[in-house]
């Protein structure tokens, strides 16, 4: 089973939920796909077992074979390859590594070369607990290739938790691809509700099952609960804000180890999402 944890914006407790749910479960794999700003590793201590460099391919044009017909540029949806008068311009950052330009080139003028875009760290937390996180190379604009590699590396996991990038970008779409269930973390504020609506629209468009955890439930107003009721969206749990939680997390510690209240909330979420698969 694959469960994605996501949010409309950063700072809603998505990572807190991911690492605590992962730690609560007896057996699970967690991937942090927020590759621009990974932070799950700050809470999870284990043994680094592998470092995997991630490469993306981009086109290289042989000027001797190219006749500047323009077919590659016509094909590319991302404006990553643009035939100019006597030169083919390639914009590496825009390339999505689809391989299409070489397929349409009538002169076999296009080959591909590798570019390093990031690294994935594989960490063994316990015997039955594997945690992977990706880190995008500074200056790279898209983390999709790293997210796809993270998903590919863990495709056989029996229970996979996916800490997804915030928002509704291509990276988020890549992270939730194939997820059986999604947990949205949201805050009961006007901005929190507005950001959450966009995530709801995305998940409905992608035909994903999902529910909502409301964090900082003792702050804000009731609009989010009215919205969930009107839209018939399951409220998985409400978790109140506590200054002590912030202090514990600032020390890189897991809340389930310090708060009975928080552990019960996580247990309840696990029960609702996994049924009898949660083992503690
Ligand atoms: S399709 Fe091939 S031959 Fe035509 S412009 Fe592109 S690289 Fe050159
Ligand atoms: S590989 Fe795909 S995305 Fe990249 S330049 Fe070629 S057609 Fe465009």
Please write out the topology:
Layout: E1 2-7, H1 14-24, E2 28-32, E3 47-61, H2 71-75, E4 81-83, E5 88-90, H3 100-104, E6 110-126, E7 129-136, H4 144-153, E8 160-163, H5 170-176, E9 181-186, H6 190-205, E10 210-215, H7 223-230, E11 234-239, H8 243-250, H9 260-274
Helix pairs in contact: 1-9, 4-5
Bound molecules: iron/sulfur cluster (2 copies).
One iron/sulfur cluster (SF4) binds at residues 61, 66-72, 83, 88, 105, 107, 109-110.
Number of domains: 2
**Ligand roster:** iron/sulfur cluster
* Uncertain parts: none
What order do the SSEs take from the amino end to the carboxyl end, as H and E? EHEEHEEHEEHEHEHEHEHH
Q: What number is the mean pLDDT?
A: 92
Radius of gyration: 22 Å
Number of strand segments: 11
Task: Count every helix, treating DSSP H or I runs of 4 or more residues as helices.
Answer: 9
What is the correct CATH architecture of the largest domain? 3-Layer(aba) Sandwich
What structural category do the secondary elements indicate? alpha/beta
Roughly how many Å apart are the termini?
18 Å
**What is the general shape?**
elongated
Beta-strand portion reads: 25-35%
* CATH fold-level label of the largest domain: Rossmann fold
- What can be said about the biggest beta sheet? 9 strands, mixed
CATH homologous superfamily placement of the largest domain:
P-loop containing nucleotide triphosphate hydrolases
Helix % is 25-40%
Using the coordinates above, name the CATH class of the largest domain. Alpha Beta
Strand order of the largest sheet: 3-6-7-2-8-1-9-10-11
């Amino acid at each position: 089973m694959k469960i994605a944890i996501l949010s409309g914006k950063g700072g809603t407790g998505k990572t807190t939920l991911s690492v605590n749910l992962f730690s609560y479960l007896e057996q699970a794999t967690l991937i942090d796909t927020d590759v621009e700003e990974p932070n799950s590793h700050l809470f999870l201590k284990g043994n680094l077992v592998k470092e995997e460099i991630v490469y993306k391919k981009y086109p290289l044009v042989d000027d001797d074979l190219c006749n500047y017909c323009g077919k590659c540029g016509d094909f590319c949806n991302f404006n990553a390859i643009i035939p100019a008068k006597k030169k083919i311009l390639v914009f590496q950052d825009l390339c999505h590594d689809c391989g299409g330009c070489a397929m349409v080139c009538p002169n076999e003028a296009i080959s591909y070369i590798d570019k390093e875009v990031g690294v994935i760290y594989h960490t063994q937390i316990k015997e039955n607990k594997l945690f992977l996180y990706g880190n995008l190379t500074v200056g790279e604009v898209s983390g999709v290739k790293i997210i796809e590699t993270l998903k590919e590396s863990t495709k056989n996991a029996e229970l996979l938790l996916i800490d997804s990038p915030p928002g509704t970008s291509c990276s988020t779409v890549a992270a939730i691809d194939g997820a059986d269930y999604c947990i949205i973390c949201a805050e009961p504020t006007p901005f929190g509700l507005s950001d959450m609506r966009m995530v709801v629209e995305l998940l409905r468009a992608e035909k994903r099952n999902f529910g909502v955890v409301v964090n900082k439930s003792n702050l804000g107003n009731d609009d989010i609960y009215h919205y969930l009721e009107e839209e018939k969206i399951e409220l998985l749990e409400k978790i109140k804000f506590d200054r002590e939680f912030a202090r514990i997390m600032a020390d890189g510690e897991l809340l389930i180890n310090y708060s009975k209240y928080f552990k019960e909330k996580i247990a309840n979420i696990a029960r609702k999402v996994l049924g009898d698969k949660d083992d503690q």
